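PROTEIN DESIGN WORKSHEET
SECTION A - STRUCTURE
LENGTH: 418
TOKENS:
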């Protein structure tokens, strides 16, 4: 509409940007044909090599909010004056949730917010010289985002041994114990907008070789000694890379001794310390989910709305994949329904599931007054493994999720006075 008011043909780049033969590309191709928008990217069952190299690989950093002036100028010179963002399909293509990308798009000085229609956002690309960065982006960097780039040690390739253990994430760890053993991690951006590194939960005594492989075929390897009798989190810093080297893959190769790896996460820091009141609070937009971002009760775009007519009855909201200190915790869901919602008293809208560590499950139900009944569960964090909590949606009604809060009630084996 903005383009037509200006007498121009509407042209846009759609995010997330997938290779053209990917099924998700057909979603925004459908809407583009419906509203007669010409796209910089679309769907084709056969993709040319030059399209991948000269377009997809050039603009793929836009998927996680990394926009630079030269690329924005190139889009405008090609007649593409807008960016459309589908926020419910980014997990496979971005290291952090859709909320991370959306925040960078909303605060970028070269973008102008045009409109939101459910889970689709429209931004105009401004002309002119770059403007100073908005201070609000500092909050984007410091928020605790659920990481999508993670791997269980026992699942890190065919050249690793699987050993069961109740002390580990997923109930097992990967073992490197003989020549030829190795673990492969997912590809991650070599340059990211927020601090992030590979962190591994590891135990044992031995040596491994860390092999970093970039898209440019360049490799860098160094030896790392592991000396830990208990499970500890260790950081693997990514070596410096040229800006043109977009993505990098890490492989751990066995050298000597016995090295046990439970889980690896690509994030700023896997461990989250509670505040002075023993609480950790995550806004809904920092987790992986379906639905779309909407206003919180405080007026911030940090809540998430799940729609009964659009979203599946499934596990469609989950996180945080972070580690809390040992202790017993109360997990509280802050959610609500729309004021005009008409559902029967006691209707189950979802189930809050503590997947790791303890496996508790609590129903999310509507009360007699039409509001949600309090939703709380307890869990015991005995080991320094990532916490995984999810929400299973039932589609009985739309549901707005505002936040989840973890409150430490006591140390492991003790009860705190209330």
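SECTION B - SEQUENCE
RESIDUE ASSIGNMENT:
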């Amino acid at each position: 509409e903005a383009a037509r008011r200006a007498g121009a043909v509407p042209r846009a780049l759609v995010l997330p940007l997938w290779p053209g033969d990917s099924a998700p590309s057909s979603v925004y191709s459908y809407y583009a044909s419906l509203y007669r928008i010409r796209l910089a990217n679309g769907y084709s069952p056969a993709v040319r090599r030059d399209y991948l190299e000269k377009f997809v690989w050039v603009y793929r950093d836009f998927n996680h909010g990394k926009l630079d002036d030269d690329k924005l100028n190139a889009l405008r010179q090609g007649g593409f004056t807008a960016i459309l963002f589908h926020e419910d399909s980014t997990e496979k293509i971005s290291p952090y949730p859709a909320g991370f990308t959306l925040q960078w798009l909303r605060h970028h000085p070269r973008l102008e917010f045009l409109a939101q229609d459910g889970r689709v956002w429209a931004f105009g690309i401004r002309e002119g010289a770059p403007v100073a960065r908005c201070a609000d982006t500092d909050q984007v960097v410091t928020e605790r985002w659920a990481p999508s780039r993670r791997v269980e040690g026992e699942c890190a390739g065919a050249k690793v041994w699987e050993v069961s253990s109740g002390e580990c994430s997923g109930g097992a760890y990967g073992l490197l114990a003989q020549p030829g053993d190795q673990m492969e991690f997912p590809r991650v951006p070599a340059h990211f907008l927020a601090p992030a590194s590979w962190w591994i939960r590891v135990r044992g005594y031995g040596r491994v070789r860390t092999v970093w492989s970039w898209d440019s075929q360049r490799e860098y390897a160094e030896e790392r000694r592991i000396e830990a009798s208990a499970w500890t989190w260790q950081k693997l810093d990514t070596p410096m890379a040229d800006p043109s080297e977009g993505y990098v893959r890490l492989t751990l190769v066995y050298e000597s001794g016995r090295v046990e790896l439970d889980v690896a996460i690509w994030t700023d820091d896997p461990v989250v310390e509670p505040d002075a009141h023993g609480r950790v609070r995550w806004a809904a937009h920092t987790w992986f989910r379906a639905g779309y971002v909407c206003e919180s009760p405080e007026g911030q775009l940090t809540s998430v709305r799940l729609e009964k007519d659009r979203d599946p009855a499934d596990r469609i909201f989950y996180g945080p994949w972070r580690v809390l200190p040992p202790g017993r915790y109360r997990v509280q869901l802050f959610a609500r329904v729309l004021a005009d919602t008409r559902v029967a008293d006691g209707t189950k809208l979802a189930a809050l599931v503590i997947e790791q560590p303890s496996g508790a499950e609590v129903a999310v139900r509507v009360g007699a007054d039409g509001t949600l009944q309090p939703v709380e569960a307890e869990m015991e964090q005995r080991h320094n493994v990532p916490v995984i909590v999810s929400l299973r949606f039932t589609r009985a009604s739309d549901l707005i999720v505002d936040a989840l809060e973890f409150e430490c009630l006591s140390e492991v084996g003790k009860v705190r006075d209330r």
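SECTION C - NOTES
Residues 25-35 form the longest helix (11 residues).
The CA atoms of residues 327 and 413 lie 8 Å apart.
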